[in-house]
Design brief:
heterodimer, A: about 375 residues, alpha/beta, Rossmann fold, 3 domains, 7-stranded mixed sheet, 5-stranded mixed sheet, about 35% helix, B: about 270 residues, 8-stranded mixed sheet, two-stranded antiparallel sheet, 9 helices, about 20% strand, globular, binds thiamine diphosphate, binds iron/sulfur cluster, binds magnesium ion
Chain lengths: ~375, ~270
């Protein structure tokens, strides 16, 4: 029996986490407490920092030297981190940030569940700062996604944000876990070739956008990582050509990361649906249950699970939307944040179901909404 | 007879061969001519070359400001972060790889205003980072607003009627926060900076270097070269830097005595 938070703590240890930096906040605190207890015996260390800004700052500093580090927080702390997250984007430094969402905005509803940090996770912070955002839908995925987050962060040299929520963090599931850490802790770093010694361009513009990354201690590869716009060498340069070129490089890299991101999964694959329901995060459990129920009731309904929030698989999502006469996106937020992100992929308007009740969406609410939508259409 | 040019060329060659220039990067500092930061640059570089620290084993971390530009002028590994966050990043660097020598550098706004929350905590954690505060009592990069160390009544474009907030005393703060090594120095005396840095780098904990310096471009009245030269002087000859009470007294009584203010005895 495992909760989402426990699965995350175990995954962190199996990933070979060296340093955890954090500041207490519900519902992320149990991750820090678990690691404070168990990380030392695996050669790691937990440092309770003075705030979330310093937590992400130290995570970046640690990853800059090649040591795996992470922080976990919730919305208010995440908001404080955004400037440095975009620093990780610009300076191309890995980081793993877990945002255990709770009700917002501001201090909001500390002990209630919500999925309202998606916009902040994908877009939060200054500038065009594309980063990787993934969201597990179950306790088992919490484990695997955190491990994947370290690998992606290293390979793509960018902050990776894992979005969970109060409900997922605390819900317990009985899951089969294979806990060997050998491949999980293996480095995904891409180091520069020795031939580049003494003429190393830290931010070389490559077809994938990935520039081999040196770490301190490597002789002949010294460079300065910077959040100022810079040339391939890393020297500050605000010229229009350079900013255009390097913005393109950074975004190309994030698009390229799609190759390593889980594709959306379709349930009840068919050529055509009357209602195609798209779900993410802990809400997906309710979506699946509701779709099963509706199908039993004789409706032609399907489900699509999205775990790669950014970048996302536009082609797969678009074809699911295209073959669904009605697309429904239920979410635990007021604004329809996933819907806002992907609705443009299809020409018809997306139907929404937005609840901010602070509790998981009951499958019955989705069933009712499906039936409502079908009746409206039938009339 | 050697010509003047020949003598200069030979001197330059001697300096090059001494290895003193090795820690400088290929790009010349973009600071204004006459800026106090050149002296600090020299002090740090000579610490690195005198100690023979391998440049690939040294990381210089900074925030934003004229002082924050420092890593670009150094051949060590560099981490130029965002405004105010050099110390958290330096904490991650040192804990991430304890074999590295870590310098954190930054201005008075960077370290005492926006980043002011971090100094107490890196000091009490006693992370082995050498933090060099370039205190010119002004925001240089943003063109001359008052900083947390500007004298009361300072007139700038952002404080046309004079500041009304009392200045902070960074040396006193570092002592109060429990820093294990505290030195107060002057950018016009690079040799003393080097000496103090060498001792601080050897100190296996947090070392704080409060450097009085000048912004020749935006401060024509307060921390000018003339004033700093006139005001500063060495610590009393019988001063005992291992006595914390004495250190507090000294700093409270005299803003301008320079040298190693406190070193924790182990
Ligand atoms: C979050 C943020 N706020 C404000 C700024 C603008 N800014 C850049 S440097 C600076 C102050 C610089 O003063 P100081 O730290 O004393 O360094 P100096 O330039 O004097 O060396 C400010 C306010 C910024 N870059 N980032
Ligand atoms: S503006 Fe002032 S602090 Fe900045 S480089 Fe010029 S003289 Fe130095
Ligand atoms: Mg300043």
């Amino acid at each position: 029996m495992l909760s989402g938070n426990l699965a995350i703590g175990m995954a962190a240890i199996d990933s070979g986490l060296k340093l955890y930096f954090g500041y207490p906040i519900t519902p992320a605190t149990p991750i820090m407490e678990y690691l404070a207890k168990y990380l030392p015996e695996h050669g790691g260390r937990v440092v309770q920092m003075e705030d979330e800004i310093s937590s992400i700052g130290a995570v970046l500093g640690s990853f800059y030297t090649g040591a795996r580090a992470m922080t976990a927080t919730s919305g208010p702390g995440f908001a404080l981190m955004t400037e440095l997250i975009t620093h990780g984007v610009m300076a191309e430094i890995p980081a793993v940030i877990l945002d255990a969402q709770r009700g917002g905005p501001a201090t909001g509803l500390p002990t209630k569940t919500e999925q309202s940090d998606l916009h902040a996770a994908v877009f939060g912070g200054p500038g065009d700062s594309a980063r990787i955002v993934i969201a597990p839908t179950s306790v088992e995925e919490c484990y695997h996604f955190l491990i994947r987050a370290f690998q992606l962060a290293e390979k793509y040299q960018t902050p990776v944000i894992v979005l969970t929520d109060f409900f997922l963090d605390n819900r317990v599931e009985n899951i089969p876990l294979v806990r060997s850490s050998r491949d999980k802790s293996a480095s995904w770093n891409i180091f520069p070739d020795d031939l580049l010694k003494n003429r190393y361009q830290r931010y070389s513009d490559t077809p994938s956008g990935i520039s081999p990354r040196a770490i301190p201690g490597m002789e002949g590869f010294n460079f300065t990582a910077t959040g100022l716009e810079h040339t391939e060498w890393g020297a500050p340069d605000y010229s229009s050509e350079n900013h255009s070129k390097m913005s393109d490089k950074r975004h190309r890299k994030i698009r390229y990361a799609l190759n390593d991101l889980d594709k959306p999964t379709e349930f009840f694959s068919e050529k055509y649906f009357d209602v195609g329901v798209i779900g993410w995060g802990s809400t997906f459990g309710s979506v699946l249950e509701a779709v099963i129920k509706s199908r039993k009731n004789g409706f032609k309904v399907g489900a699509l699970k999205i775990t790669s929030i950014f970048p996302y698989h536009a082609d797969i999502i678009a074809s699911f939307m295209a073959k669904s006469r009605i697309v429904l996106i239920p979410e635990l937020n007021y604004e329809g944040q996933l819907a806002n992100l992907i609705a443009h992929l299809d020409s018809k308007p997306v139907a929404r179901l937005n609840l901010v009740t602070g509790t998981p969406i009951p499958p019955s609410a989705i069933v009712t909404r499906i039936e409502e939508l079908l009746e409206v259409k039938a009339r | 007879m050697k010509t003047q040019a020949r003598i200069l060329a030979e001197q330059l060659n001697d300096i090059k061969e001494s290895g003193k220039l090795a820690p400088r990067s290929g790009s010349l500092p973009t600071w204004c001519p006459g800026c106090g930061y050149f002296g600090i640059h020299q002090g740090i570089n000579e610490c690195i070359s005198t100690m023979g620290l391998p440049l690939h084993q040294v990381v210089t971390v900074s925030g934003i400001g004229c002082a924050g530009r420092y890593p670009f002028f150094s051949k060590t590994y560099g981490l130029h972060t965002v405004h105010g966050r050099a110390l958290p990043a330096a904490t991650g660097v040192k804990l991430g790889n304890p074999n590295l020598t870590v310098f954190a550098v930054g201005g008075d706004g960077d370290g005492l205003a926006i980043g002011g929350a971090h100094l107490p905590h890196i000091a009490r954690r006693n992370i082995d980072v050498n933090y060099i505060l370039f205190d010119n009592s002004i925001y240089g990069l943003t063109k001359g607003q008052p900083s947390p160390t500007s004298a009361l009544g300072s007139k700038t474009k952002a404080s046309p009627y004079g500041t009304v907030d009392k200045p902070l005393n960074a040396t006193l703060m570092a002592l109060a926060y429990g820093a294990s090594f505290v030195a107060r120095l002057f950018a016009g005396d690079p040799k003393s900076i080097t000496e103090a840095l060498i001792e601080g780098v050897r100190n296996p904990g947090f070392s704080f270097f409060h450097i009085y310096t000048t912004c020749v471009t935006f401060d024509k009245t307060f921390k000018t070269w003339t004033h700093l030269k006139e005001w500063t002087h060495p610590l009393p000859s019988d001063y005992d830097a291992s006595d914390l009470r004495l250190a507090f007294n000294q700093v409270l009584e005299d803003d301008f005595s320079l040298g190693v203010i406190f070193r924790k005895k182990d």
